[in-house]
Amino acid sequence: MLTLPRRTAAGTCVLAILAVLGTAPTALADGPGGGVNCGHFICQVEADDPGQTGTGGNTGSEPQPGGNGSGSPWTCVYELLSPQPAPGSLDWEGHTPGDGAVYKQTCHYLDSLNTIVRNQWLADPPPAAAAVDPAVLAQRAVDSMKLAGPDIASPRAAGRYLMGMPMWMWVHQSPTKYGPNTASASAGGVTVTATAKVSKIVWTMGDGAIVTCAGPGTPYTAAAGKSDSPTCGHTYSRTSADQARGRYRVTATSAWTIDWQVTTGGGGQAGQLTETRQTQILVPLAELQVLN
Does the structural domain 134-286 have CATH classification 3.30.160.40? Predict the structure, then answer.
């Protein structure tokens, strides 16, 4: 969390950012008071107050009372300080008690990876914050999961497969390639938690066949002999000799089901999203040769 603990007489804020030693500072666009990303250093930067004019900040897109500024990725909420700062405090920005009021301003950047908290004088009470759409936060949480296509264990590009013999298909399971995968996103005092898991995998085998499997499939063992897979398999009736590069192009498409719910500040709303991801592999299919 980023905290702006004090003000200067010119009405600017001192922004202190604490991190681990590493890279050099870089600008952070459209943050409260201009903002700065100090990378892995401890640094202080003079930054203009939201709504003030000056040379230290990006006033065109800084957060305004009640929510985001125009085009701003920041969401801010305000809480009236009680008790109010003492007369003469820099928090009054030259005003006297009773002339407006001082609020605690909390601003979140996009997915709340960055948060800034400071005191802010306002002439008038801030308007009510715009309602946050939980479904948008749910999608943001899903995007942070970095879901990927199936991690195909079988068939393998380096495998040797025969026409007329059962092929067992299965995938490796991990949070990003099969689930479950859980992530949260927050904005405007609302937090949504989403959990994603693959509900089915649709295999397009390259010979016109489509196989839908409800689970990850069953790994083959020698004890199964020439039997069909009990959960996910296919038997080719012709070789891949006439295919491009002499192989069938197999596509595995995973269907992700994502259940989400508001865990903070939204009255228990819930919903569901779906996503799909694909993985392709080239599989050789040969004909069984019988030796006389």
Answer: no
